[in-house]
Recover the amino acids of this structure.
């Protein structure tokens, strides 16, 4: 109860601070979920391709590595944006 | 008689080392442009470049190590490595954001810009050399052979 009073008092003092934190959390979380799904798809399909054609594993792994890095760039976008908007 | 496993080169390491090489090539230009924001910009650009290049090297090291264990390990390493590397980048940003010698917008833009720029550069390069992924083809000899 005391914690709730403390939170309410802080929110009343500076509501934008709390809203900024919530917004940062949404941006940060959204930026991590999307690439996580994307990397899962990239890796899953790469493993399927390697299982079907083991001789092409080198090519598949190269493409997979670059695909993962490209997908990860989305997460970096979100992280950086979250930090920049919060100042 | 068991079928012989094809020998796969360490493609991730080759690609990552190539990206790092390109990173060092563009570093002077990035630092020069970041210098517009003063010494804080230059310091931020150096740290951002370091984060990006270490991130690529860490990804390659994790994937190469996992590839020796099999495809299942690749899947686990890719997703686990993603979480781990993002956590490290997050901690780095949290620690650095309130430092007086850090320019946060420069840090952010250099991280995103160099990450994407180096990837596009490498993508163009790899697409030309898919026969030998990540490796520059040998220059033809005088007789025209490779």
């Amino acid at each position: 109860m005391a914690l709730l009073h403390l939170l309410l008092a802080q929110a009343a003092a500076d509501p934008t601070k709390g809203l900024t934190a919530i917004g940062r959390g949404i941006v940060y979380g959204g930026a991590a979920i999307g690439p996580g799904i994307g990397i899962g798809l990239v890796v899953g399909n790469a493993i399927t391709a390697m299982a079907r054609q083991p001789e092409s594993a080198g090519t598949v792994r190269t493409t997979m590595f670059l695909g993962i890095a490209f997908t990860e760039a989305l997460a970096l976008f979100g992280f950086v944006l979250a930090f920049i908007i919060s100042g | 008689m068991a079928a012989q496993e094809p020998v796969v080169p360490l493609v991730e390491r080759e690609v990552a080392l190539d990206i790092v090489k390109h990173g060092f090539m563009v570093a002077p230009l990035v630092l020069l442009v970041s210098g517009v924001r003063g010494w804080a910009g230059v310091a931020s650009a150096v740290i951002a470049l370091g984060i990006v290049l270490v991130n690529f090297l860490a990804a390659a090291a994790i994937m190469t190590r996992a590839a020796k264990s099999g495809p299942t390990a690749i899947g686990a390493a890719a997703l686990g490595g993603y979480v781990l590397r993002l956590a490290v980048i997050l901690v780095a940003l949290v620690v650095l954001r309130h430092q007086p010698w850090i320019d946060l917008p420069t840090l952010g833009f250099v991280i995103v810009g160099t990450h994407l720029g180096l990837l596009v550069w490498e993508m163009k390069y790899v697409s030309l050399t898919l026969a030998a992924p990540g490796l520059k083809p040998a220059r033809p000899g005088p007789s025209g052979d490779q």
